[in-house]
Design goal:
With about 725 residues, the protein is mainly alpha-helical. The chain folds into 3 domains: about 70-240, Clc chloride channel; about 265-510, Clc chloride channel (Orthogonal Bundle), CATH 1.10.3080.10; about 520-715, CBS-domain, CATH 3.10.580.10. Helix content is about 55%, strand content about 5%. Helix 25 (about 655-665) links the parallel strand 8 (about 650) and strand 9. InterPro entries: CBS_dom, CBS_dom_sf, Cl-channel/antiporter, Cl-channel_core, Cl_channel_pln, ClC.
Amino acid sequence: MEKDSDQLAETTCNMEQQTNQQERDPESNSLHRPLLKRNLTLSSSPLALVGTKVSYIESLDYEYMMGFFFMTGVNFMLTLGATLLVVFLAPTAAGPGIPEIKAYLNGVDTPNMYGAMPMFVKIIGSIGAVAAGLDLGKEGPLVHIGACIASLLGQGGPDNYRIRWRCIRYFNNDRDRRDIITCGASSGVCAAFRSPVGGVLFALEEVATWWRSALLWRTFFSTAVVVVVLRAFMEYCKAGDCGLFGQGGLIMFDVSGVSVRYHVVDLIPVTVIGIIGGVLGSLYNHLLHKVLRLYNLINDKGKFAKIMLSLAVSLFTSACLYGLPFLASCTPCDPSLVDSECPSTGRMGNFKQFNCPKGHYNDLATLLLTTNDDAVRNIFSTNTPSEYRVFSLVIFFLLYCILGLFTFGIAVPSGLFLPIILIGSAYGRLLGMAMGPYTTIDQGLYAVLGAASLMAGSMRMTVSLCVIFLELTNNLLLLPITMLVLLISKSVGDCFNPSIYEIILDLKGLPFLEAHPEPWMRNITVGELADVKPPVVTLCGIEKVSNIVDVLRNTSHNAFAVVDNQVVPAVGQVSEVHGLVLRAHLLLVLKKKWFLQERRRTEEWEVREKFTWVDVAERWGTIEDVAVTKEEMEMYVDLHPLTNTTPYTVVETMSVAKALVQFRQVGLRHMLILPKYHGPTVPPVVGILTRQDLRAHNILSAFPHLERSHASKKGR
């Protein structure tokens, strides 16, 4: 009996030791296995028969559910706040704002884009959207914010509280206002990436249409001021009084701690990364185009539809970010560390323990349950060949491909830079892991090259991206292979579709003029283009008020040709093209009541008494805002002082290709078409060209045979 009791006691002791060993051994712990392979139900787990284990499992499930609801609720409220601001206060603050800036600098009027309210909504909305964990970046909105600040400084403040100082009138012309907005956009890029030279090159390569030497040093000065101020704030915040603002320095994703060595064999995977970036970038543009067209249909249904779409994306994002890490296995921390504790910076750094036991981390949670900037730092990390598993990186790549497509386009301020960097860095690191011993390039550097390739494949930028990535990563030795990757990705992407910003411009209906005309534009003249347009509307130099009101009410043109009819004794009546008068100036005349009792020319002193340079530079609303009496309708207006007497003109026999080049290079809004022959029966003005008339899509809609003939020539 005593022997049996001793054996039973020994067996019980061994079972307890095995149980304790299983609890201590992470390899045998169920928490080390993915959630789908675990069995935590009370009826089937032998550990659940013990009362303490029942309490542990119930509390575990309760904590996870409460964590999910808390995270989802906070993200939901942040997204709701950002969406309400955009929908009700400033609809133009949605999206990145870069396509609209690009269109404005190309000569397109984009109203309500650079005021105080869009800037306020952009700032607060970006904070809410990024904090909500949505797959979007702050870089695009920062470019728009910089342009808004520059525009407000240039015009002396908001419309209702504008400062009328004489020194500000320098920026009231179109050219200098475009220049200061270009400086603001480059400053936004510098603030986003802490890349002063990259900001200058971004403005040169991507947003600016007209570039000159004076604009180069102005943008460089702007970005230099930004980086000095940014550095000063970082120095001030080093004491920890500013939260996370002062951490990290000017280099956001430093990879200079690894030696860059590559051989001729390494050019093969580098070329593959470039090709993959071009193909995936063009595919991303194609799919995003389809999604944005769908979102346009949803957003056209009203404000409620916009709000519900944003909230649905927020709920889906939160569910994916919280649920997918349960699929990953736990990874033991570096045993060389003290007590095998994973390094962590408060709640923000590597690594996330999540559902793993002490001394282990969840690599997928480390990538998903963090800020986008920290996720990029994690994937860019060097000398960490076993830090992330292939399964986790594949899940991360697929998830951010889906989130990137369905998040962009909702009614919140959003950027494209960081989502594309995350997607590209994921497949870049995967390729680096696949190469393994066949390459000398670190996996973190492969991630950098993957991010650069996808950005070039989607946005089709090269020089500015190269400099931005060098300033981001602080590793000049990456320059040769980065240049090669960017050139290959852009070339491959151009074979399939336009850049993502050109697609957005087309979806928004902004008439952006490309630098190079289509080949078939040489086969049509501007005179033929004018024939398919409605007849040109002209005004006399001294016009009746009723005629001006009638023209403004029945047309939507922004400029009108001014023609004087004179009688020459030997010839008879001849017509003289005096110039071009703007719609805004006609509204100015009507609002100022600058009417004449008889038909006569005005003196210069009369004009100076009535109008100032501020009046001429202002916009004067619409014709519906003007009240004109019946007596005033019979009076006259002298349009000569307000007419541009030196407009740009072309002969009706000039090809559309030449006219487009001149129109774009000079930065025109209107171009007069004059007849080749003059005579009493020949009208003095054949037509007026605008940028809408020179768009390829509009020309082909009027002359469809041009596209067919060009396609047949290419087929032969």
